[in-house]
Amino acid sequence: MTHPKIWLLRHGQTEWNAQKRIQGQLESQLTALGIEQAHRQAALMGDILALDPDCFCSPLGRAQQTAKIALNGTSFKTDNRLAEAYAGIWQGLTLDEVCAKWPELFHANPHNLDLFCVAPESEGFEAFRERIADFLGDLTGPSIIVAHGLLGQVIRGLTCGLERSEMGALPNQQGCVYLLENGSEQVLE
Q1: C-alpha torsion 2→124→168→133, nearest 10
Q2: Which residue(s) pair with 30 in the sheet?
Q3: Residue 143, strand partner residues
Q4: Residue-level pLDDT at 2
């Protein structure tokens, strides 16, 4: 399936990112670095916003705060399908705590995308992928999406034709913009 051109932004660093704590769909504030990263994204977005693309954002606070900065006050639509993966009972725990209590799952899933999707009571990969595919299927033209790391890996994987195993290995940078077009990605920094 082909998709319209997408500019994808991951939210800036949060307090929990810095602590290696699993956020999932819980809230954590942007750090000073996270706010700086959103401003770096804003510097990249001027010419892109002039093209008047559709703008979408996750409902979670860290993405909303990033969008307000990075999109220079441009209005955006909030879409619940852009929320980060629900990581079940692991939300709020550090990666070290997960490793200590669930070592077999932790070591069998070296990438966060796979790990968070096998958490007890989590959303699971298939349901997560399906809601993202549903969102992508509704896009009607060039779009800016402000969301999350794992969600971004799946969007990038779906638009670039990657296998599930390849999605989790994608880099997950903050403070940049991923341009997704014609089945490939380019990182704007």
Answers
A1: 10
A2: 14
A3: 6, 54
A4: 84
Pick the CATH number of 6-85+124-188 from 3.40.50.1240, 3.20.20.140, 3.40.50.410, 3.40.980.10: 3.40.50.1240
Catalytic residue among 11, 123, 148, 185: 11
Q: Please, are residues 179 and 188 in contact by the beta-carbon 8 Å criterion?
A: yes
Instruction: Please pick, among 15, 84, 111, 123, the residue that the annotation labels catalytic.
Output: 84
d(CA 178, CA 61): 21
pLDDT of residue 103: 97
What is residue 62's three-state secondary structure? helix
The phi and psi torsions of 121 (rounded to 5 degrees) equal 65, 20
Residue 166 is among the residues annotated as catalytic for this protein: no
Bridge partners of 179? 7, 186
Tokens matching residue 182: 């014609």
Q: Average pLDDT for residues 41-56, to the nearest whole number?
A: 97
Residues 133-149: pLDDT tens digits?
Answer: 999 999 999 999 999 99
The mean pLDDT of the chain is 97
The tens digit of pLDDT for each residue in 59-109 reads 999 999 999 999 999 999 999 999 999 999 999 999 999 999 999 999 999
The question of whether 84 is a catalytic residue gets the answer: yes
